[in-house]
Amino acid sequence: MTEDITSEYIKDFQYHISSWYEKNTRSLPWREIQNPYHTYISEIMLQQTQVNTVIPYFHRFINRFPDIHSLAKSPIEDVLTLWSGLGYYKRARQLKQSAEVISNQYDGIIPDNYLKLIKLPGIGKYTAAAILSIAYNLKYPVVDGNVIRVITRIFQIEDPIHLSNTQKYITSILNLLIPDNNPGQFNQALMELGSLICTPKNNQSKCLPCPVKSLCKANTHNLIHKLPNKIPQRQREKISQIIFILTNHSKILIQKRSEGKLLSTMWEFPYHELDNNADHNKVYSNISEALFNTQINPKYISSIKHTITYRDITCYIYQLEAQQENAITIESLFKQRNIHFQWISPHEITQFPHSSMIKKILTKIDLNNLSIF
User: Fold this and answer.
1) Which of 180, 233, 327, 361 could be disulfide-bonded to 322 (CB atoms 3.0-4.6 Å)?
2) Active-site residue among 43, 192, 268, 321?
3) Is 43 a catalytic residue?
4) Which structural domains are found in the chain, ordered by start?
5) Helix 164-177 with 7-24: angle, nearest 10 deg
C-alpha cells in the first residue's frame, strides 16, 4: 500500500534513480536541447517503436519540418512519405492535425496546459504528461510500458495491469515518488531503466546493475519473470497475398489505399488475398485474369513475410509485363473501381507514402531491369 512508502524510502529511491540516470543516460537527438517541439515529435514516434528505429526518422523529420508551423503547412502526403516504414500511420495523420491546431490557435507554441494538450489529436494522458514534465519540467508522472514494468516489479504488483484500479495504483505510487525538483529527469530515468535494464525478458542476472534492486520486491522474491501480469495476447491472424508488379515500358503501377482502411491513403502494389489453404502457384493466373480482365503471363519472383500488429502476412510476388493494349484495359478497370493509380518510374516510389512492407518487396525486385528480372 502507498502508506508504506515513507519519506526516507522516497528520498532513497529518487537519489539512486537520478544518480544512475546521470551516469547512464543515452545521447539521443531529442535530448540535445530542451525543445517542446522535439519532445513532442519524439514521443509520438516512440509510441510502440524502438529508439534505434526512431533516431534516423527523427533527424529527417526535424530537417524537413523544423517547427510546428512548417509541419502544419505541409501536405499530408509529405508527412506520410517521411513516416514511410515507421508504421502506425495514424500517428502521422494526427500529428499533422495537431500541428494545424497549435499553429492556428496557439501561435505555434505547444501548450503547457494538460487539459489543452489532451484535446489535441493523438495526445493522450501519457504523451501530455511526457511533454509537460520533460519539456516544461512540470510535475506530471509519465506512465508508459517501461515505467509500468519497473513499478510493478519494484512494488510486486501482481494484479493484471490492464485493470483501471491497477493503473490508478501505479499512478498513485508515481505521484509519491516524483520529485518537485526536475520531475522530467526523474520520468526519463524510470523510462531509461525500463528500456536498458528492467526489460520485458529480464532475469535475475540482468538486475545486478539496477540502482534500485535493493528496493525491488520482485527481485527479492524471484518474481521478475512473472511481472507485470499482462492479459493474454490477441490470437495472431495469418494472411496470404499475391502481389502484382505490373510493368509497362519500364514503368510500374501503384495504387492508393482508400480512406477507412488500414494504412489508408498509402501507396502500394495491386494485391489479392488468398485463402490460407490455397496454393499460389495454382491460382495466380486465374486471379490475374479476374483482377485485370486480360491475358497476361505472370512470372513468380519471390516471397516475403511481414508483420503488422497481430497480422502475419506472407506475400507471393509476381511480375506481369503489360503491353500497351493491356495497360489501357487495366487503367479502365481501375477507373471503374474508383481506385487511384499511377504509372511511375520504380525509383520514384520513395516519393510516395508507403509502408515498410513495400520496402521489403522492393528488395526482391531489380528496379533497373524490370522487363527482365
Assistant:
1) 327
2) 43
3) yes
4) 2-226 (1.10.340.30), 237-369 (3.90.79.10)
5) 80
